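On to my pick:
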Amino acid sequence: MKFDYSKIEPLIRRIMSVVLVVVLVCGVILLLKPEVWRFNPQYLVETTILKDKRFSANVQEIISPKLKLKAYLFEEHSNPIVSVEFLFKNAGSAYDPDYKEGLGTLLATMLSRGAGKYDMEAFNAILEQNAIGLDFENTKDDFSGALKFIKSDIVLATKMFNLALTKPTFNRIRLKQAKKDMLDNYKYMLEQPDSYAMLEAAKQLFGKHPYRNSRMGTLDSGQRITVTDLRTFQKQHLTQDNLLIGIAGDVSAIEAGDLIDKLFAGLPRHAKITPIPQADIQITSPDYHISRNLGQNIGFFYAKGVAREDERFYPLVLAIEILSGNSLTSRIQKAAREDKGLTYGVYGDLANYDKSNFIYGRFSSTPDKFEQLKQIIQTEWDRLGKYGVTEEELAQAKDYMIASEPLRYADIGNISGTLVAMQKWNLGLDFLQKRNTYIRNITLDEVNQVAKQYFTPDNLRFVTIGDSKKQEQR
């Protein structure tokens, strides 16, 4: 039987007409609005649903009923998870005793290697079986930690945390193993170009200041640390009067106050801390190069910056974003990556320590192109200081920083950590609501003033590692 196409020919023609119209419409759209089909970071920022989104819930300041400890609380009841982050001020690696560098890092390790009646295996088995996250960390300035748990496990999580903090098992065998682990980590850092260059940069920038020290100590300092040293450091630094606490998640103010009293019960009341001086980083010294046979050279740049509480903080952060931020539209990214194809990436940021504030950045390229890339960074740095930024660049930087901010809080732990930072830097209870407004209100004149002040030829120093023969060899 022969099929009669004449019966369906009108339908086929109608379908073809519709397809032709769709193709024409799409073509017009692509011609008039190319940003919808090619990668355009600015277009993504401007159209994201996160743009200008702000926290609707307020942060509360609470005081625990028994210990009278202050904390910031962010209630979030959509998920049955509680996150607690805390920080002991002036207890970081800069406060390690001389010749016993790495003491704070060893203490952070030992606090999770058994406590109370539980040895390390039993202690960690309880945490794992109940999905309780417990971490301790030693930074340059502070000794910090985090506890995360499901609301139904609040009693058990509180018990295990308090045991770790107040009744750790400082077993000599465990300490010996922890020392070995720390030494192995330090040796590994020395083998990695990135981390080794940063260790050397700290020595160059901070001179004899304690900030020069690695959190891992030295090749031999860890061997001098004893159980008595651990107990003394813990008693003198991990105390109630230098404690900052942030709590976020499925917990009320009353529950949070009771939680704080149970978490930190038994800690010494007052700290005994030897203060450290201000650190003025060495920028005027010559650039420093470490000769090493690498497939790709790595560089770091450093400059003096401003404190977190300084009114120039946000203008400087925006200037850094325009010069070398994480967006693909930064000046160095465009000049080096897009125009010259010299680098896999370059970024810059502002570091705020208690006793030092500085701009830093990282870049990399093949050895044959490395000097050219370094010169581009120097040129763009000088150009920013001399001519400032444009209205368009400032608007793009603001949009990027505002739109990307909510992504930081996808994890409840990031919120509790921010609550601690809000206290450390005196940002205020309403910081989550006001942060984007602070950025939006920065003027072009404010950014160009800090650019003129900080992006100068004499406020930039490079520390590099790799095969370049044109730099001074170490």
